[in-house]
Design brief:
The chain has seven helices and nine strands, in the order ββαβαββαββαββααα. With 281 residues, it is mostly helical. The strands form four sheets. Strands 2-1-3 form a three-stranded antiparallel sheet. Strands 4-5 form a two-stranded antiparallel ribbon. The longest helix has 96 residues. Bound molecules: zinc ion (5 copies). Pfam families: zf-C3HC4 (PF00097), zf-TRAF (PF02176).
Length: 281
């Protein structure tokens, strides 16, 4: 259904009227034949029909398009009275801003927000109603601090209410504690797992280091053995050197005594041996 033409200030172009309800277009849609309709009007029509109500051309809802932009602009600019004019609202707005105004119009009807209250009042009277609404919650007049409505005040018992409240708080607390305990246990188990892994890794490293160190001490032992061997060799060589020197001295002093000389071949061999000994030393 469109807007009643009587609600508009000034004349409305014929082209902005719905072809079905003859009111001013509301949520307009256009057929390929360029006839325009309110969304609800044409959707209702197409439930039983398959043609445009104006010229009987074939029509289906999938072929409906938004209104031409220039027509939509003309429609949006129309000046309209508030829906609640009859209740006293004097507001006039452009059609495009009407929904916004009506959502905050002081003359619009609203329902009381209190649960169980079914009263409908003008938005501007809501506060007055809430002051007297029997379902409006206020702090208990006997001083327990609980919020209750005057409708519930007669059957309200401060001590019983407080006890129920405490019970529910206690069970809520117990639930939270149990949850925290579960969480802590979970975390501890995870940490324990990590520790075990770390310990295993450290043990591995320790074993590695032990084998490294035993290898090193073996090497040291080998080195020390070879050092001892070298020293022994040196001592042996020193003795041989001394013997050779002795031998040489003896050889020189008896060089006149030809009979004590070794044969020529022997002398050559002796010299060679002496030379190699000296280089060795
Ligand atoms: Zn219509
Ligand atoms: Zn048509
Ligand atoms: Zn209004
Ligand atoms: Zn109320
Ligand atoms: Zn109370």
């Amino acid at each position: 259904m469109g807007y009643d033409i009587e609600r508009f200030v000034g004349p409305v172009n014929e082209g902005l009227l719905c072809c079905i309800c003859r009111d001013v277009l509301q949520d307009p849609l256009q057929a390929p034949c360029e006839h325009a309709f309110c969304k609800t009007c044409i959707e209702g029509w197409l439930v039983n029909e398959v043609t445009c109500p104006e010229d009987r051309q074939i029509l289906s809802s999938s072929r409906l398009k938004p209104l031409f932009r220039y027509m939509k602009n003309d429609l949006d600019r129309l000046q309209i009275y508030c829906t609640f004019k009859a209740r006293g609202c004097p507001h006039i707005s452009k059609l495009e801003f009407l929904p916004k105004h009506e959502s905050e119009c002081p003359y619009a009807t609203v329902s009381c927000p209190n649960e169980r209250c079914s009263v409908l009042v003008s938005r501007r009277d809501l506060e007055k109603h809430l002051n007297t609404c029997e379902f409006q919650k206020r702090e208990c007049s006997k001083g327990c601090g609980i919020m209750i409505s005057s409708a519930d005040e007669r059957k309200h018992n401060c001590i019983a209410e407080l006890r129920t409240m405490m019970d529910s708080l206690r069970s809520e607390f117990a639930g939270k504690m149990a949850e925290q305990k579960r969480e802590m246990e979970l975390r501890l188990n995870m940490q324990r797992g990590h520790m075990v892994q770390k310990e295993a890794a450290m043990q591995g490293k320790l074993d590695e280091m032990k084998s490294e160190s035993s290898k090193l001490s073996q090497k040291v032992k080998l080195l020390m053995d070879s050092e001892t061997q070298r020293r022994q060799d040196m001592e042996k060589l020193e003795i041989e050197k001394k013997e050779l020197i002795e031998l040489l001295r003896g050889h020189r002093s008896s060089s006149v005594d030809r009979s004590r000389l070794p044969r020529p071949g022997t002398s050559k061999r002796f010299h060679k041996a002496l030379q190699s000994k000296v280089t060795e030393i």
